[in-house]
């Protein structure tokens, strides 16, 4: 399988604080990896470093075999940040069209792509409303729809289901599993431990270190517990 994401001995400091401590990580096509850890563990920094939004102090980060930032491969990456980056004076549809253009979709491709992405997040009937009037949950759904645009080879989703109800969360994960079947690689950070159970591998970040990285079944066996939530609690206690 093609390697889509690779971090080799990545270190990142903010002043005297070590935020990423010798991180090694790999994600392949057709794979969903969950990244879990308490707030402040380094999850978002790890994503920003691999995408070139933060510069690593040591080590190497490769995305689709390239160092980031690299505008030539941006169209192959669907990225959803932890905080929504939307144009609030525009409607949901106008946001979708703008980001579709940024990703290189043609006018012919746009209607179907936008329709599919907004159906996945159950936002179709709200597309003509101004984003300034959206609830926090609706903004998250729009951000996720934007990340899904354009048939990306790699999806990087930073807490995509925050503020989304359980039924819609299930629908989103059905879509992610379908994308996985189509060979797309997906990295998801989450605080919802039930979601971590749905991944192929789980990385557990604690104090900037990747203290565990394996399949949910292997992690539960290694920590002698029944759920990923218990893995998280036991690992955090040991840490």
UniProtKB/TrEMBL annotation:
CDD domains tied to this protein: ABC_subfamily_A (cd03263)
Alphabetized GO MF terms: ATP binding; ATP hydrolysis activity
Source species, domain of life: Bacteria
Domain ABC transporter: 5-232
InterPro entries (UniProt xref): AAA+_ATPase (IPR003593), ABC_transporter-like_ATP-bd (IPR003439), ABC_transporter-like_CS (IPR017871), P-loop_NTPase (IPR027417)
The name this protein goes by in its record: ABC transporter ATP-binding protein
Family matches, as PANTHER family: ABC TRANSPORTER G FAMILY MEMBER 20 ISOFORM X1 (PTHR43038:SF3), ATP-BINDING CASSETTE, SUB-FAMILY H, MEMBER 1 (PTHR43038)
Gene: ybhF_1
Keyword ATP-binding belongs to the record: yes
Keywords, ordered alphabetically: ATP-binding, Nucleotide-binding
Record has Nucleotide-binding as a keyword: yes
